[in-house]
Automatic annotation (TrEMBL):
Keywords: Coiled coil. It comes from Actinomadura alba. Residues 14-192 form the CT398-like coiled coil hairpin domain. It comes from the Bacteria. This is C4-type zinc ribbon domain-containing protein. Residues 206-239 form the C4-type zinc ribbon domain. The keyword Secreted does not apply. Residues 37-159 form a coiled coil.
């Protein structure tokens, strides 16, 4: 393949711009805000699960407390009825009086036990309410952080996109200076070799694979016509001769 030396040099300019574009794309994919957003979103998910569990526990405790309070009321009402019977003097039998007093005592113990149950449920409810309140506070803080991270990500992406847009315009202008066949070869090689299709020969070393050329290859390049397109024997990229090639 033949191409004017000036066109081959423009290939290095094109490669530099393509490398810059690839760097910008990589930077956009690896913005630190992206990892931070993923972390905060994961934490928010965990908080949502914890919130559902805590609110479910509160709902269960509400039902449990209501049932326990009903049990207390029932026992208290029965004890009050027995006490009224006892105080009315309607029970005259000594045996019946003893049984009634024993039942009242038993009901009072039962009421006390049930009231302890109610208090224990209320304490558990208070703890669950505290967890929900803490989770809501933490969730609000995480949502604010997520919004701030989203704004920072958007700003960073906008900056990168603007730079990439300007670089793409410059690339289009440079690509016009490269013959179609050489440009096609360059694009093919870029696809094959990690985005690098052309490299400078600098002081006897290929800047694509960073290997020094042997004497035979250097002599072959020295003897080649200025418009001949040279390929690196090691990496097969287009090897562009410059004033710093050491030929």
């Amino acid at each position: 393949m033949k191409a004017a030396p000036e066109a081959q040099l423009r290939l290095l300019d094109l490669q530099e711009l393509d490398t810059a574009l690839a760097r910008l794309q990589r930077r956009r994919r690896t913005l630190p805000e992206l990892a931070d957003i993923e972390r905060v979103e994961s934490r928010l998910g965990e908080m949502r699960d914890a919130m559902v569990a805590a609110e479910t526990e509160i709902s269960d405790l509400e039902r449990e407390q209501k049932k326990a309070e009903q049990d207390v009321d029932q026992v208290r009402q029965r004890a009050e009825r027995d006490q009224k019977r006892l105080d009315s003097g309607q029970v005259s039998s000594a045996r019946d009086l003893s049984n009634l007093q024993s039942e009242i005592t038993s009901l009072q113990r039962r009421q006390s036990d049930l009231e302890e149950v109610v208090l224990e449920i209320m304490e558990r409810r208070e703890a669950a309410d505290g967890r929900v309140a803490a989770l809501r506070t933490e969730r609000s803080a995480a949502e604010r952080e997520l919004a701030e991270l989203g704004d920072r990500r958007t700003a960073s992406e906008r900056e990168i996109d603007e730079e990439a847009g300007a670089t793409s315009i410059a690339r289009t202008a440079v690509a016009k200076d490269v013959p179609a066949d050489l440009l096609a070869l360059y694009e093919k090689l870029r696809d094959q070799f990690d985005g690098v299709g052309a490299a400078a020969l600098h002081r006897g070393q290929c800047q694509g694979c960073h290997l020094a050329l042997n004497t035979v290859d250097l002599n072959r390049i020295r003897a080649a016509a200025a418009d001949e397109v040279i390929r690196c024997e090691e990496c097969r990229r287009v090897l562009v001769r410059t004033a710093e090639s050491g030929l």
